[in-house]
Structure formats: C-alpha cells, structure tokens
Amino acid sequence: MSVDPNQVVLATPAYWKEACGYLAKKDRVLKRLIPQFGDACLQSRGDAFTTLARSIVGQQISVKAAQTVWERFAKLPRKVSPANVLKLKVDDMQAAGLSARKIEYLVDLALHFDSGAIHVDAWQRMGDEEIIAELVGIRGIGRWTAEMFLIFHLMRPNVLPLDDIGLINGISRNYFSGDPVSRSDAREVAAAWDPYCSVATWYIWRSLDPLPVDY
C-alpha cells in the first residue's frame, strides 16, 4: 500500500481538558460555550514548515480559495519540504495560483529553514515572544501569523492574538452585545483566561464559526 508523503497526522494538546474545566469556572460565557462543541479541540499538523507555508498561501484570500491553491501547490514537489520548494520553478508555482509576492515569501521561508537561520529544534525551550521575534524576520510573516503558529503548531496554551478580527468580533458578540470592542476591552475580558488564552480564543472562534480552523 502506498503512503501519501503529504498525509497529515493531527495531534491534540494534553492540557485541553484541564483548561476547559478551569475556564468554565472562571468565565460565564465559556461555561456556556465549551459544552456546545463536545470533544472537538485544537489540532496541530505537526510540521512547522507546512504550517507556515499554508499561512502564507492563505493570506488575503478566502479559506476555500486558499485550500484550492494549496492543494495545487502541494502536488508540485514529491513532498512539501524546504529543500523541495527551493527546487521548484517559478512558472510552475504561478500556474498553481500563487502571486509573485507569495512565491518570494515561500522561497524566503524555505531558505530560512534550509539554512538553519531559524532554530526549529530550540523552539520547545523558547518563550512565545522569542519565537515571534524569530518568525517575523521571515518575509511575509507578521505578528498575527506568528501567533497563529504558536497556537496551531506549537499548541502554546496562553497566546492572546489581539490583532485577530475573529477574536475581537467574538468578544464583542459574546461579552458586549455586539458593541465595538477596543484592544484594552479585549485584554480586560481575557484577564480571566490566563493561563489558557489560546483555549478560550479557540472557543470564541467556534462561537462565530462552528467548523474548527487549522493551519
């Protein structure tokens, strides 16, 4: 039986159940939301390069369009890896639906991984802000993308992505009856979520869109 080299094996965080119990005690909104989604929880694809490459491909286009482009792009190399991406022809990547800028970003990402310019093996020992500082040095990756990486790949439990419009909209809807919410308002609400801001954020996202997000 042949094995798809791009096959995804999803991992889930060990702290999830404990976090849900903690948040349900601390926050009335989450106490109501958490039971609505059963056993569903955050999942990681387990491959750092693929996670970041997917986030670049998906910038400024719809989730559906991003999935289509990613599927075309992922078929170009035998396996999606930094070394294989560096061997791809620009024309082939453009034919898959990638803009010239996104191709530049993907090549820069592959170069950072391939050259050892980023310390993948050290990430487990590094703090969240240290990892963000390293990732934003790659073209096409800003703080929001780095925070999504911390949540969806490294499954860090206490990330609060205040630049995320879904989180801000979800806080507005669930805590302020739809009224506009400032970053300081959001930070105040999230004070009760510490040390599980990532988990709370995931459930706030689910309140807007029941389908789980992954990167």
Automatic annotation (TrEMBL):
GO terms for cellular component: cytoplasm; protein-DNA complex. It catalyses: Hydrolysis of alkylated DNA, releasing 3-methyladenine, 3-methylguanine, 7-methylguanine and 7-methyladenine. Keywords: DNA damage, DNA repair. Residues 57-209 form the HhH-GPD domain. One of its GO terms (molecular function) is DNA-3-methyladenine glycosylase activity. Its EC number is 3.2.2.21. Pfam families: HhH-GPD. The keyword DNA damage applies. GO terms for biological process: base-excision repair, AP site formation; DNA alkylation repair. Belongs to the alkylbase DNA glycosidase AlkA family. PANTHER family: DNA-3-METHYLADENINE GLYCOSYLASE. This is DNA-3-methyladenine glycosylase II.
